[in-house]
Each structure stands twice: as structure tokens, then as C-alpha cells.
Amino acid sequence: MINTAAITYSITFPDMGFPAQLTTLGGANPCTAASSTQACLIDDSLALGIKSGYNFVWQVTAPFLRSASSLRARPRPSLVGSADVLYGSDRRDPL
């Protein structure tokens, strides 16, 4: 969901590239007007980085803001025995 939202964001706001922060993909509820600062593509709890027992960390390397990003889904400490999940996007070829 976040990967799809990031790609949608980069297409909708081509001058911005990928969002610099996960919160950029969220927005007020209800969302009445999407913008490059509040795209309203994911719900706010996910945009704040916490959902379904995972902490989500959005990372973009500055030189690649317009072309690539990564997302790390890390289980909350209370979920023993779980592992990190790493996702990535490349504007030319979504992973």
C-alpha cells in the first residue's frame, strides 16, 4: 500500500519525486483536497508510521529523492520472533 502510494505520489507530483517523509502520503480525515504536502493516499495512522503491530520507517537518500526510496517495516518490540521487512521503489521500475 505504501509503495503504491509513493509511486502514485511521484506520478501525481512529478516535480517533487518521491515523498521525503511518510507523513506526506497521509492527510486530514476527511481529505477534501490532496496536495504535495498532504497527498491523502494512505490513512493517517499508517502515515504516522504505526499500524498492525509494525513501525514503518520511510527512507529516501537525498540525491535519489526524485528516483528511489525504501521502506522498512519493523515489528514493534512486543512482537518477539518477528523480522524486519524491507521494500523499495525505483521510479523507473517498482520493486
Question: What's the short story on this structure?
Answer:
With 95 residues, the chain is α+β, with helices and mostly antiparallel strands. 16% of the residues lie in helices and 23% in strands.
Low-pLDDT ranges: 90-95
Distance between the termini: 13 Å
Supply the number of helical segments: 2
Shape descriptor: globular
Which strand order does the major sheet show?
Answer: 1-2-3-4
Topology:
Elements: H1 2-12, H2 44-47, E1 50-51, E2 54-59, E3 68-75, E4 85-90
Antiparallel strand pairs: 1-2, 2-3, 3-4
Q: Would you give an account of this structure?
A:
- The chain has a four-stranded antiparallel sheet with strand order 1-2-3-4.
- The protein has two helices and four strands.
- The protein has one domain.
- The protein starts with a helix and ends in a 5-residue tail after the last strand.
- It is globular, with a radius of gyration of 13 Å.
- The chain is α+β, with helices and mostly antiparallel strands and 95 residues long.
Q: Can you give keywords for this protein?
A:
95 residues; alpha+beta; four-stranded antiparallel beta sheet; 2 helices; 16% helix; 23% strand
